[in-house]
Design brief:
By secondary structure, the chain is α/β, with parallel strands linked by helices. The protein is built from twelve helices and five strands. The chain is about 50% helix and about 10% strand. It folds into two domains: about 190 residues, HAD superfamily/HAD-like (Rossmann fold, 3-Layer(aba) Sandwich), CATH 3.40.50; about 80 residues, Putative phosphatase, domain 2 (DNA polymerase, domain 1, Orthogonal Bundle).
Length: about 270
Amino acid sequence: MNKIEAVIFDWAGTTVDFGCFAPVNVFIEIFKEVGIEVTMEEARLPMGMLKWDHIKTMLQMERISNLWKEKFDREFTDKDVDKLYAKFEPMLLKSLSEYTTPIPGVLETVKELREMGLKIGSTTGYTDIMMDIVTKGAEEKGYKPDFFITPDSTNSLGRPYPYMIYRNMEALELIHHWTIIKVGDTNSDIMEGLNAGVWTVGVIVGSSNMGLSEEGYNNLSEDEKAKKEIEVAENFKEIGADFTIKTMEELPALVERINKMLSEGKMPNGK
């Protein structure tokens, strides 16, 4: 088949939790508890990765690494990552149910995609126990993909590894990578898609890369919105995304555009 058969979505910041605030606040808090102040930007940069990997990536950042050495007079170790993660998980689980509301436009878009005959898959940086909460809350509010998987089912090899996408392909009975679109709101989402060889789409409004709450975004002037949207779009393009969309409502039209490209022999990632 030479047309799009499935869309694989990310969760937080893409389909639920406008701005992806559930994990960000917890990352900041666990570092604060050990006496290290991290910025919102530092907490967001590795977003989309398995959360243990996310914490380790933060510790590898030059500024945070230097603060750690100043405070503890040594380099961090994986045991330190384990201790921080041990604080992170229960703290996140306590608040996660408050961050399962579908982002505006998602329910309508998923309905339209299904009417077009597409299957709906998903990947995440959350673990199984976290997704027990997220999937239940999202389903109660009307969102349920055909399949979801966490890095727990891929030997903890989350993004940027492509294995969660491969497991979606298996579950949804998909053969060709070029008939799949991966939609996400972080750099690691795009890298996951690139490594799997599928079409990659960065969604801008509501994304972790934009980093604004729904209220914060709505309070911007039109000029400020446009400036932020351009910044996020350029970042996605630098990572290698095939396309960006402002909001999810633009996705069905993009599917048709990609179908036309496929009919002309074009492939993902400019191939």
